[in-house]
Structures are given as C-alpha cells and as structure tokens.
Amino acid sequence: MPAPDRVAIAAIDVEPLSIPLREPFVIATGRIDTTQAALVRATLVNGRGVRATGLGEAAALPPVTREDQPGLLAMIAAAAPALRGTAITGPDDIAQVVADALPDSRVARAGVEAAVLDAWARHAGVPLYAALGATHPTELVTDITLPISDPERMAANARAHRRAGFTSFKVKVGRDWRADLASLRAVAEAVPDARFGLDANAGFATHYSGLQAGVLADCSWPRSKSLCMWYLRPAIVDPGDRQLNCCI
Fold first, then answer.
1. Sign of the four-CA dihedral 142, 204, 37, 8
2. Residue 141 pLDDT > 50, yes or no?
C-alpha cells in the first residue's frame, strides 16, 4: 500500500441518527422503536487542501449502554475542538488520538474512531481492509438478532432471515423464561439447521438456569440441528457494572 499524504483532522461533526424501525426491537430491559445513535462525520485534509470525509456510528441502547443519545451527542461535540488539527500519520495513530479526546465513553470512541478510519482510507484511496493491514478482503460470517416477541412472530422472522442466508441467530430472552422457552421451541422448529445464542441482557436472576435446562431437556428440540448455545449477560452478579456471561 503506498504511503498517503500526511493528513490532519479538519472537522468532527455529529448529529442524531434516529431512524424509525419497521418493528419494535424488544429486549429484556427495554424496547426501541427508533434508533438512538449518533452519526459522526470526520473530515481529513492534507497540505494541498485535499479532503475526504468518513462516517461512523455511535449506538446507544440504555440500559445496555451507560450512554444515551443526548449524552453521546454532547460528548462528541465537546471533543471535536480538541481533535481538530490533530495529525494522523496512519491508521495505527487513530485509536490513541480518539481515546485521548474521549477517555470516558467507549461508545463515543467507537463512532469517532470508525469515522476517522473511514476518512483515512478514503483519502488514501484504499479499501478499509487495506487500511486495517489486510492484503485481501475476508468474508465475515455474522449472526442476526431476533428480538423478543410472540413465538409465531419470532419463528416467521427466523424463517425470513434464513431465506436471506443467515444461519446463526442471537435470540433475545430474559423477561419470562417460560415464554422464552416457547419462543425458542418455535424458532428451532422453523429453522432446524441454525445455530443459536441466547442474550438475556441481564434480565434473569438466578433462575435463568431453568431456561437452559428446559432447552436442553425438551424432547421437541430438533435433534438434527447443529446446536451451539451460549448465554450473553444472563444476569447482574453484583451491584456494579459487571455482568455474568456463561456458555453451555
């Protein structure tokens, strides 16, 4: 990859990214009908005045994130003057530069860092994978999330996502483990070749193990599927910010 011109941050701009969802995104500890994110634009400029602008998103989901949308907008706007004029010699500089300006919010840092990295790659005229040090693009496999709903709706969503090519599902649970179990049975019957992870968003108390036992012991759970289960944040384990993760 050829060395790009020396560039500096010319501007960091932020605005609300509030997009109405087609369906509510329901988790154990909340519901979202409209996204609560911050759209970040980072503009870099070289000594000849050539500019490039990149985009980043800082996504808030209280109480999963400490930050809410107004807080993100305020933090990023407040950090913008300190970042303006900062020289960027390469992608390896970006994380530390942004961390110095936004030490108290990982969500805000993620949005700004993504925008600056995108702008750097655009200014250098290289794809983002090259800016990150790769020599060729790599195919990434991701899951897709099924928010909490009634079993029929969750099964229908799973079938639609499976037709679109998804084979791995993160299933939101954590409000009522018996209702969750009914939904999981319906989803598993709808997409029997899929893999599942369960995300309770700290909605369970210690009784979350009832769901685990029910899923594994239930005779209606398809035996032909490739079952790879994990729990993400099933329960708060102390009054602080730490949460329990476990795998089965």
1. negative
2. yes
Q: Is 152 exposed, middle or buried (0-12, 13-18, 19+ CB in 10 A)?
A: exposed
| Residue 140: Cβ-neighbour burial (10 angstroms; 0-12, 13-18, 19+) | exposed
Pairing of strands 168-172, 144-146: parallel
In the block, tokens 């693009």 appear at: 137
What Rg value do the Cα atoms of the chain yield, rounded? 21
For the chain, domains (ranges, CATH) are 7-131 (3.30.390.10), 144-247 (3.20.20.120)
Closest CA to 2 of 123, 117, 181, 164: 123
Q: Picking from 29-38, 163-172, 217-226, which range would have the lowest pLDDT averaged per residue?
A: 217-226
d(CA 69, CA 18): 9
DSSP state of 63: T
- Residue 169 scores a pLDDT above 70: yes
177-190 helix and 209-217 helix, angle to the nearest 10 degrees: 30
| Tokens standing for residue 159 | 């079938």
* H-type alpha helices, the chain: 69-83, 91-101, 106-124, 128-131, 151-163, 177-190, 209-217
Instruction: Tell me the sheet residues that pair with 34.
Output: 20
pLDDT by residue (tens digit) across 37-64? 999 999 999 999 999 999 999 999 888 8
Answering whether pTM is above 0.85, one says no
Distance, in Å, from the CA atom of 68 to the CA atom of 63, rounded to the nearest integer, reads 8
- Buried b / exposed e over 162-171, threshold 16 CB at 10 Å, is beeebeebbb
Could you give the dihedral angle defined by the CA atoms of residues 105, 111, 117 and 118, in that order, rounded to the nearest 10 degrees?
A: 180
